[in-house]
Amino acid sequence: MIPYFDYRPEYRRLRTEIDAAIRRVVESGQLVLGPEVEAFESECAASLGMPGAVGVNSGTDALILALRALGIGPGDEVLTVANAGVPPVAAIRAVCGVPRFVDVRADTLLVDPEKLIAALTPRTRAVVVVHLYGQPVELDPIVEACESGGVPVVEDCAQAQGATYRGRALGSFGTIGCFSFYPTKTLGAFGDGGLCVTRDAELEQRLRMQRMYGFRDDRHAHCEGVNSRLDELQAAILRVKLRHIEDSVARRRALAERYSAGLAGSSFALPGRTPGGTHVHHLAVVRTDDRPRVIEALRAAGIGHGIHYEQPVYLMEAYRSLGYDEGDLPVTEQACRSVLSLPIWPGMEDAQVDRVVEVLRSSR
After folding, report:
1. C-beta of residue 36 within 8 angstroms of C-beta of residue 236
2. Among 33, 137, 147, 318, which residue's Cβ finds the most Cβ atoms within 10 Å?
3. How far is 39 from 181, CA to CA, in rounded Å?
C-alpha cells in the first residue's frame, strides 16, 4: 500500500524534538495564546522576511480575518479563481462579499494575470490570489495593477509555504499573506492552524483584535471579532517543523523531480512553472484525459490519490446563486476535469515513486 499522504515518517524523524515540545507545553500551565504562539509568530515572520505575524485557528480563518481587517463586507466584489477548492470562496462569502471568478492559465493552472487585470472594475474591493499546488502566481503585473487602483491583494499561501517569487517569500507581496498549517501542508501541524502576515502595523493590530473577540490586552471588544486562536500545542510543534522546513521542501522537490523524470515522454502532463518562481510541491499534480481509468488502476495497485480540484466552485450547489454557468471559464473547467494528485510527502521513498510511475505508465 502506498498512501496518498502519511505524516508519520516525518514525525518519527523529528520525534525527540516534537515530544519535548509537547511536554514543554503540557507542563507550562498555559495552553492558549502563550509564549509558544508568540515565539512561533516571530520565527515564522522572520522566515518570510516580514515584521510580524498573527497565528489563527486555520487557513480559512486566516482568509476570513484578512478580508474582515480590510473592511470587505456585504456586496463587495472580490476577484479570485474557481479551481482552488472551496476555502477562498467560503472566506469571501463568510464576510458577505461577492466572489467574481477569473480564468487560469492553461500551462500553470494559476490565475491568468492578463485576465485578472482585465476583470478589475470600480466595484472590485479586493483580490485573492491563490498560489496553487505549491508554486507562485505571476505576481508582478497583478500587484502593480492593484496598487495603482488602490485594490488590496490577499495572498492565499496555504499550499505554498517556503516558495518564493523573484527571490522573495510568498506572502510578502500582497497587503496580507495567509497561510494554512493543515497536516498535509509543507509546514503541517498535528491539527488545524493558520497565520496572517502583513507589513501594515494597523492591519496587524486589527487581525490580533479580531482573532479574539475584538480584544486588545483587555476584555473589552474594541471591534467585532471572533474566536480564532492558534493553540500552544500546535505552535510548539510548528516551531520544531519550521526549523526543518528546508529539508522537507528539498525532499518534496526531489520526489517531484523523480515523478517528472519517470513520466517524461508519457501522456501525463505536469503543470508548467512560473518564471522567477520556486515550487515547494505541496501537491504532485499531473493531467490526464482519462482520469477514471487511471484512478481505477491506482486503486487496484493499492495506491492513494487526490483530486485538487474536481469541480469549479461556481458549479457546486452552494454557489450556483453566484450566476455562473458551465462554459464560463473554459480553462478552469478543463483543468478540473483532468487534474490528478499523486502521493507525495517528505518521508516518501524513491521506490514508492517508481511504483506509482510504473502503474501510471501501464494504465495507458
Report:
1. yes
2. 137
3. 16
Residue written as cell 516534537? 18
Name the band, by pLDDT with cuts 50, 70 and 90, for residue 78.
Answer: very high
User: Which amino acid is residue 112, in one-letter code?
Assistant: D
| 263, 360 Cβ separation under 8 angstroms | yes
Secondary structure E strands in the chain: 53-56, 77-80, 98-101, 124-130, 153-156, 164-165, 168-169, 176-180, 194-197, 284-287, 339-342
Look at residue 106 and give its three-state secondary structure.
coil
3-state secondary structure of 358: helix
The answer to whether the beta carbons of residues 10 and 346 sit under 8 Å apart is yes
Kindly tell me if the per-residue pLDDT of 218 is higher than 90: no
Model pLDDT for residues 275-319, shown as the tens digit of each residue? 999 999 999 999 999 999 999 999 999 999 999 999 999 999 999
E strand or H helix that includes residue 362: helix 350-362
**Rounded CA separation 204/100 (Å):** 26
Give yes or no for a contact between 2 and 302, defined as CB atoms under 8 angstroms apart: yes
Q: How confident is the model at residue 214 (pLDDT cuts 50, 70, 90)?
A: confident
Q: What one-character-per-residue DSSP string does 116-157 give?
A: HHHH--TTEEEEEEE-GGGS---HHHHHHHHHHHT--EEEE-
Q: What is the overall mean pLDDT for the chain?
A: 97
Q: How far is CA 106 from the centre of its chain?
A: 20
Phi first, then psi, for residue 85 (nearest 5°) are: 80, 180
Q: Assess whether pLDDT exceeds 80 at residue 364.
A: no
At residue 180, the 3 state secondary structure works out as strand
Asked if omega into 4 is within 30° of 0 (cis), the reply is: no
